[in-house]
Amino acid sequence: MQSIQANNYFVHFNQNAYEALNTHLKENKYSNLFIIVDNQTNEHCLPKLLPIIETDLNIEIIEFEAGEANKNIETCIEIWNVLTDLGADRKSLVINLGGGVVTDLGAFVASTFKRGVNFINIPTTLLSMVDASVGGKTGVDLGNLKNQIGVFNVPQMVLIDTQYLETLSQAEMRSGLAEMLKHGLIYDAPYWKQFLDLKSIDYADFDELIYRSVEIKNEIVIQDPTEKNIRKALNFGHTLGHAIESYFLESETKTTLLHGEAIAIGMILESYISLHKNLISEAEYAEIKTAIKAIYEEVQIEESDIEPIMELLIHDKKNEFGTIQFALIEGIGKIKINQLVENKLILSAFEDYKS
């Protein structure tokens, strides 16, 4: 697979990825190498990576506990302290091996340690391959509020090896699939159509679907690196989806949702809103709702849950001047950004989801 040129770095795939990594290590004089993992990627992914790395550098492994609950500034402080204790300097290289939590947090750690050291991301989940791999977003959560603290900063490269997907559960695969569905809905109608009958997909060709998803996100990000305009399209499903994800994360009575599970709900809700703003047809909405509900189990959202979810919308990063901004679809494959939506319509979308 041909490497994809992103903003000031390349996304490399499968065997080409490791050749690019080892070439980079030979051509750059790094003082030492740190690999940031969580406990799951330490067990399942690191044993594959270590024998492939060709270097005489001292390699140190830094592990933290897996999960969104640990994507916070406290974990960053612990890692900054470990880097300091182990003698990291501005010529150190950090490799982040893991899903979106590891690559987001690890990239933020590297971007801020000694005002920035080089880093490389190796995403190991479907979600991180098709989403976190492109765009230069780094950061952590603030309490239960998603990705409130962070900076834009690009890696030296991103390495995508789809063999890591063999370590994932079906739930994790479905979580990543949500972002791929989103890419079709906002940008590429024929791509979306490929997912309408999952049974017909030849998984031997799944690498090509991942490649196209990365390509779509990259085409959008290149036009708008810091999310002032068209990059907001990527937030479709995320305005309500992030609020739902945050609410379920903090609630003591709810089972925490995976990112893609929450975004799947958000895409149905925001498609309903698109319908009632006359941006999509009834047939298009029915197609979207049916396709997504065929993949994801319906999540029970009680009447008492809706008000606290709505309150979390206030903290959405896309808000400007105190108003909530939605990215809605204008027909399948097209997007309309900066859309204001009244609360009554949002409440109606929840009612429709539950029906």
From TrEMBL:
It comes from the Bacteria. It holds the Pfam family DHQ_synthase. Its EC number is 4.2.3.4. GO terms for molecular function: 3-dehydroquinate synthase activity; metal ion binding; nucleotide binding. Keywords: Cobalt, Lyase, Metal-binding, NAD, Nucleotide-binding, Zinc. Its cofactor is Co(2+); Zn(2+); NAD(+). It is an enzyme of class 4 (lyase). Residues 62-174 form the 3-dehydroquinate synthase N-terminal domain. InterPro entries: Dehydroquinate_synthase, DHQ_synth_AroB, DHQ_synth_fam, DHQS/DOIS_N, DHQS_C. GO terms for cellular component: cytoplasm. Residues 176-319 form the 3-dehydroquinate synthase C-terminal domain. GO terms for biological process: aromatic amino acid family biosynthetic process; chorismate biosynthetic process. PANTHER family: 3-DEHYDROQUINATE SYNTHASE (PTHR43622). Catalyzes the conversion of 3-deoxy-D-arabino-heptulosonate 7-phosphate (DAHP) to dehydroquinate (DHQ). NCBIfam families: aroB. This is 3-dehydroquinate synthase. The gene is aroB.
